[in-house]
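for the writeup, i need someone to sanity check this before i put it in the appendix. the sequnce is what the collaborator sent (i think, or maybe the updated version? ugh). structure was predicted straight from it, no edits. if anything looks off just tell me and ill rerun, i have time this weekend
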Amino acid sequence: MADEPPRTHRAAFDVRMIIALLIGVYGLVLTVMGLAFTPAHQVAKAAGVNINLWAGIGMLVFAALFVLWTVLRPIRVPDEPPNGE
């Protein structure tokens, strides 16, 4: 039965989730700062663009894409080491 594909399971630790968590937290902070705490004179200095808000939204989208990538393409780890080890 050497033609059987090896049995695998999902990896318990995936660095993509850590990256998504960090970028997501920073994105959430920037989004809240952009919505609630950005004074009008700072927006005026940035040519009328609320940079904190847009950067925060972009980071939240990036974090969501990383989570989606992790869910759709999980890292698979073999259940047993290869023969000879």
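The mean pLDDT is 89. Residues 15-36 form the longest helix (22 residues).
thx in advance!!
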